[in-house]
Backbone:
C-alpha cells in the first residue's frame, strides 16, 4: 500500500545580519513552506528571497504569522484579545501576499507560529479569530493547525479547507497537545525516533503520548523544524526513509 503526506517547514526566519537555517537546501526536501512575516522573525528582504527560492523548487507557499516578539522568537505567550489576533494575522498575510503578487505567485496556506499556534490550539476564541482572519483574506486559503485542536475545528466550522498537522520532533500529551517547550522532554533529539514517529503517524494515525497511551491524530502534513542544529541532515534523511517505506511526499491536495 502506498501512503502520501505533505512535509512542511518553517523557514525565512533570518533577520537582518542574523542567519537562521539553510533555507535553500531544505526546500529540496519539503513540499510546503511557512514563511515568517516579520513579527517573530524574518524581514522584507528575507521574505522576498524565500518566496523566490520556494518557487524555484515548486514548494507551496504559506504565511507564518506570529506574535510581535523578535527577542523571544514568538515562543512566549502574550495576553492578546481575539481582535488583536485577527489583526495580526491579516496584517502578516498581507505582507507576504504582496511579495507573491510581484512574482505572479499564489499563496496556498496559513500556519500560525509558536505561541500563537499553541494558544489557538486550546483557546476557542483565539482560534475562531484566526480562522476568520484567514477566511476574510481568502476562503481559498488552507489553514494549517495542530491536529484535532480548537484551531482546526474553527477552520472547518467556518468553511476553510484545513490541514491537520503533526510534528516529527515533538512529544505529545495524552490529550493530543504538544509537550510544553518549558519541559526537558518536549523535543525528540534522536533522529531515528523522530523518523519512526513520522512513519507511524502516516501509516497508523497514532502516536505514543508521554503518559504511555496511544493518541489518534490525523496527519495531513508533518512539520520539520528548520531552525535545529541538524535540520538539513534530518530533512534529507527523513525523505529517504519515508520513500523506503513507500510513503509519497506530495503537496497537500486542495478540495
Residues:
Amino acid at each position: 500500500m502506498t501512503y502520501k503526506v505533505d512535509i512542511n517547514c518553517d523557514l525565512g526566519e533570518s533577520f537582518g545580519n542574523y542567519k537562521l537555517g539553510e533555507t535553500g537546501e531544505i526546500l529540496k526536501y519539503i513540499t510546503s513552506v511557512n514563511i515568517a512575516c516579520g513579527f517573530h522573525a524574518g524581514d522584507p528582504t528575507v521574505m522576498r528571497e524565500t518566496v523566490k527560492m520556494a518557487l524555484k523548487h515548486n514548494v507551496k507557499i504559506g504565511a507564518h504569522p506570529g506574535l510581535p516578539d523578535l527577542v523571544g522568537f514568538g515562543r512566549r505567550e502574550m495576553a492578546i484579545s481575539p481582535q488583536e489576533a485577527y489583526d495580526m494575522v491579516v496584517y502578516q498575510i498581507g505582507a507576504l501576499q504582496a511579495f507573491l503578487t510581484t512574482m505572479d505567485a499564489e499563496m496556498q496556506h496559513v500556519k500560525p507560529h509558536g505561541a500563537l499556534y499553541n494558544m489557538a490550539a486550546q483557546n476557542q476564541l483565539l482560534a475562531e479569530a484566526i480562522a476568520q482572519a484567514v477566511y476574510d483574506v481568502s476562503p481559498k486559503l488552507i489553514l494549517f493547525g495542530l491536529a484535532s485542536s480548537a484551531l482546526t475545528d474553527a477552520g472547518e466550522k467556518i468553511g476553510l479547507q484545513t490541514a491537520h498537522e503533526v510534528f516529527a520532533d515533538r512529544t505529545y500529551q495524552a490529550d493530543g497537545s504538544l509537550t510544553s517547550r518549558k519541559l526537558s522532554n518536549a523535543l525528540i533529539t534522536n533522529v531515528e525516533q523522530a523518523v519512526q514517529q513520522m512513519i507511524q503517524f502516516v501509516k497508523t494515525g497514532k502516536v505514543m503520548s508521554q503518559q504511555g497511551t496511544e493518541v489518534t491524530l490525523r496527519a495531513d502534513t508533518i512539520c520539520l523544524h528548520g531552525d535545529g542544529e541538524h535540520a538539513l541532515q534530518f530533512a534529507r534523511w527523513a525523505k529517504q526513509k519515508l520513500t523506503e517505506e513507500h510513503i509519497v511526499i506530495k503537496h497537500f491536495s486542495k478540495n
